[in-house]
UniProtKB/TrEMBL annotation:
This is Flippase. InterPro entries: Poly_Biosynth_Transport, Polysacc_synth. The chain crosses the membrane at residues 9-31, 43-62, 82-107, 127-150, 162-179, 185-203, 224-241, 304-327, 339-360, 422-440, 446-466. Pfam families: Polysacc_synt (PF01943). PANTHER family: PSMA PROTEIN, PST FAMILY PREDICTED COLANIC ACID TRANSPORTER. The keyword Transmembrane helix applies.
Length: 488
């Protein structure tokens, strides 16, 4: 694989890790200053803003796609037209969303929430800030898409990390120095978002060398809507599918079983940072290159992902049970560990399916990728109902993993890529994961588990290096560099 792509994957990976770390560190301070009830309201507020992400209408990804193509042909004027058309469209939809969330949140707070009168009054005073947050978030996604479309991931992640620090620390400072109220915290959070948006805007204008403001152009906007609409459908379908298992578990088995399921799920889904970093890196490159080059790049990327992500997944499967026992106690760990191990396999499959999905979106037709999700959804719901009714938590987890495998197969077929070597490589690594599932379920002694795990890791890495020439060359280059440094 191209060393430039590997460098960008590393940049994007660390760019995903740092915000997660900052969030984990600051949460206890927020709860201490604000109290459980106020922090819960703020969490719901930001979740609500996240749901309003559909107002982006896929514009950020569409802009990224079109800017990548324009830069591949050195058409700076087209990049500017795409940027400004996406900006104005997202600004308008963001303002509409801000008005909707203002009046909707007012009605919801007044008639449907169970909070104290004092806290209700705080919510009312904070609503204007909440409304402002929507258009700010909407245009920020366009700025981010433009920078990523130019493959300037170092610029994007630097600004994004600064924005995350501002977003986490400014509200905390406001709660400490001004008042621990919703109004002061949300106002500071919106100010942080504005500062982050300004940083991203400045960086995107500099990256694209844009010096003048332009009005949106109908032809460009139409192309963005055509691409972005299907991206939006794919995103909404994925959002529904990702939450359907928990909803149906709560309906079928009760809230206690949802806890048994979501505790390991929330933990293992953090493993998707590596495939997400790869996907963020690949999408603009796949949008810009010819089909033959794109196919070769996807094959190399899947080989790389299998070689790197499979050892991580093996370790996660083997250590999940002991970790949950220490973290949440033996009772919950006993119920959650089998579920979590299966979901690790699901995350592993989803990562590979996502690489194939962006090949279709960038090179074939985004409608095909969206259509797969729509067709699968009712069958997935039916399979979940059957799995939960007959096999409980494990049944739900198995259905989720099988759905990821089916999704991967369907995407490979529709991508029209030469799939046989990809399937063989994936199935070989899947055998290692299934073996790890078996070992984790029958071995309870930690020392034995460690010895078996080391042996499995060695075998898997050896298999990857032996069967993949690109990885073998990469390993050889790494060893040569280490030898040169040691000799020096």
């Amino acid at each position: 694989m191209d060393k430039g792509i590997l460098k960008n994957v590393a940049i994007n990976f660390f760019g995903l890790i740092l915000p997660t770390f900052v969030s984990l560190v600051t949460v206890p301070s927020y709860i201490k200053l604000l109290g459980v009830e106020r922090y819960g309201v703020i969490s719901l507020v930001w979740t609500l803003i996240g749901y309003f992400g559909f107002l982006d209408l896929g514009m950020s990804m569409a802009a990224q796609n079109q800017i990548s193509k324009a830069r591949a042909t050195n058409d700076a004027s087209q990049s500017a037209r795409v940027f400004w058309s996406a900006f104005w469209l997202n600004l308008v939809t963001g303002i509409v969303g801000g008005l909707l969330i203002y009046f909707g949140a007012f009605i919801y707070t007044a008639y449907f929430t169970k909070v104290s009168a004092e806290l209700q009054h705080e919510v009312y005073r904070a609503l204007p800030w909440l409304a402002v947050a929507i258009p700010i978030a909407n245009v920020s996604w366009v700025f981010a898409g433009a920078i990523n479309g130019a493959e300037r991931f170092g610029v994007y992640n630097t600004n994004q990390t600064i924005g995350t620090f501002l977003f986490q620390l400014l509200p905390l400072g406001a709660a400490w120095l001004i008042a621990p109220t919703l109004q002061s915290v949300l106002a500071a959070a919106v100010v942080a978002r504005i500062l982050a948006a300004v940083l991203l805007a400045r960086a995107s204008l500099k990256v694209l060398n844009i010096r003048h403001i332009q009005l949106p152009q109908w032809g460009v906007a139409k192309g963005l809507f055509s691409f972005g609409g299907w991206m939006l459908i794919a995103s909404v379908t994925s959002m529904v599918s990702d939450s359907l298992d928990r909803v149906m578990l709560g309906t079928g088995l009760g809230a206690r079983f949802v806890t048994y399921y979501t505790v390991p799920q929330n933990l293992v889904t953090r493993l998707n940072m590596l495939p997400n970093a790869l996907i963020r890196t690949l999408f603009p490159r796949l949008s810009a290159v010819e089909r033959e080059h794109a196919d070769a790049l996807v094959r190399q990327s899947l080989e790389f992902l299998n070689a790197v992500f499979t050892p991580v997944a093996i370790v996660a499967i083997l250590v999940l049970g002991p970790f949950l026992t220490v973290w949440v106690g033996s009772d919950l760990a006993t119920a959650s560990s089998p579920v979590g191990r299966i979901l690790i396999v699901s995350v592993w499959l989803v990562g590979q399916a996502s690489v194939t999905r962006i090949l279709i979106q960038s090179q074939v037709n985004p409608a095909r990728a969206a259509g797969i999700g729509l067709v699968e959804l009712p069958f997935f719901a039916g399979a979940l109902w059957f799995g939960i009714a007959h096999y409980g938590l494990v049944g739900a987890a198995v259905v989720v993993a099988v759905r990821a495998l089916v999704d991967y197969g369907a995407l490979l077929y529709l991508s029209a890529i030469r799939a046989r070597p990809i399937w063989l490589d994936m199935l070989a690594h899947l055998v290692f994961l299934l073996a790890a599932l078996y070992v984790a379920s029958v071995v309870s002694n930690l020392a034995t588990l460690a010895v078996v795990g080391i042996a499995m890791l060695g075998a898997n890495v050896g298999w990857s290096i032996t069967t993949t020439p690109a990885l073998r060359n990469l390993a050889r280059d790494l060893l040569l560099r280490l030898n040169v440094r040691n000799s020096a």
